[in-house]
Design a protein that fits this description.
About 30% of the residues lie in helices and about 25% in strands. It is α/β, with parallel strands linked by helices and about 375 residues long. Helix 4 packs across helix 5.
């Protein structure tokens, strides 16, 4: 995205100023604000969209905290997906019944994973494999330590990050995994994070094309005398497309908090923004610019500078410079901003933004009601 293609103001939600905080003097900036009622609204919406909570296996990489997990569990959602051992342990601490660690585990992580299995026997843990050597290693270590590791075969449907392509080789891997001691096959996993077309019809077309070989593989496994395997598929952009598949579990994550990036691309999903960053004007370096206390360390900065943030209460502002603790924004010569003024910043990408904070301030009806610890932002809790 070039400078001239920077984020333009777009129509936001009809409930104007929902983000305002009356007790902002109590909150130092930059600060992560979370709106629990909006999280609940998003959970209610996905339940309506999918109707069967047994299909929902949310990814917790977005929220990384216990309280949203408990809201999901209270809504009847029992299965979860995560990317780190810390996230897996956080889920176990919350009492989650079923946790998939959707990651390829090396030897060091395998030992930690087995510690996790032993420390939280009430939670069923599982992980991914996409190759023979990793499966053999998991079997060897699990057998030695007298545990059983549940595994999902990770399929590559075009993301080209991890996974084995569905077909003959993946069926051979299934045969080998199924015969290993101390290993139990749970099903198939396929993440299609490369599919993010804004046009819904194109997204449906590309998704179904990418998963054609997966469905053929499932049929082939049944023809060989196996049970029809469960498939875990779909992030937020595609979970609704996968919902009609047989024996499927869906793993969106961003829907819990939502962000500007997904709203612009997938407006038909219609979730509510439930997390923003509060920042303040700390300097006015020139007559048409402001400097605010929101640097790389307080909002996701992996995108080009014009695609990192949208200011809900000042949509005319746009970033010019971004450093570790500062952001300089263009305000125009006629601006009325003063030192100390508050801006409510909507992240384009909420997931890595949340991970930058140790805690979040929970806002209800404009008031600070409590703080939530971002428990799984670290790589280790206990195990």
């Amino acid at each position: 995205m070039t400078f001239n293609e920077r984020i333009e103001p777009t129509l936001m939600e009809p409930s104007n100023n929902w983000y305002n905080v009356t007790s902002h003097v109590e909150i130092d900036s930059p600060a992560l604000l979370i709106y629990p009622e909006r999280i609940q609204s998003n959970i209610d919406r996905i339940k309506v969209m999918l109707s069967d909570t047994e299909k929902i296996r949310p990814h917790v990489k977005t929220c990384k905290s216990k309280e949203p997990i408990k809201l999901l569990m209270n809504a009847g959602i029992k299965k979860f997906k995560c990317a780190t051992i810390a996230e897996a342990e956080m889920l176990a601490i919350c009492g989650a019944a079923d946790v998939l660690l959707a990651y390829q585990l090396n030897e060091t992580k395998l030992y930690r994973f087995i510690q996790l299995i032993k420390a939280y026997p009430s939670t069923l843990f599982s992980c991914l494999v996409d190759n023979e050597s990793s499966a053999f290693l998991a079997s060897k270590i699990a057998f030695k330590l007298n545990v059983c590791i549940y595994v999902w075969i990770d399929l590559n449907v075009g993301m080209n990050r991890t996974g084995i392509k569905p077909g003959i080789e993946s069926i051979e891997l299934y045969d080998k995994v199924s015969s290993l001691p101390a290993i139990k096959f749970s099903g198939l996993h396929a993440y299609d994070g490369h599919i993010f077309e804004s046009d819904l019809e194109k997204r449906i077309l590309f998704t179904n094309k990418a998963f054609l070989a997966v469905e053929e593989m499932r049929i082939k496994l049944v023809s060989r005398g196996n049970q029809f395997p469960i498939l875990i598929a779909g992030g937020t952009p595609t979970f609704s497309i996968h919902s009609d598949r047989n024996s499927v579990q869906l793993s969106p994550g961003t829907f819990v908090l939502w962000d500007k990036g997904y709203q612009d691309l997938f407006a038909e999903l219609d979730f509510s923004f439930a997390a923003i960053v509060l920042t303040r004007v700390i300097s006015i370096p020139t007559e048409d610019t402001l400097c605010i206390d929101m640097g790389h360390k307080s909002i996701a900065a992996e995108n080009e500078i014009s695609a990192r943030v949208y200011f809900l209460n000042a949509p005319e502002l746009y970033p010019l410079k971004h450093s570790e603790e500062h952001m300089v924004v263009h305000a125009g010569r006629a601006h009325k901003f003063k030192i100390g003024d508050i801006l409510y910043a909507l992240p384009v990408h909420i997931c890595p933004t949340v991970a930058l904070y140790e805690k979040a301030y929970c806002i209800q009806s404009g008031n600070l009601i409590e703080t939530w610890e971002i428990t799984a932002r670290d790589r280790m809790i206990n195990v």
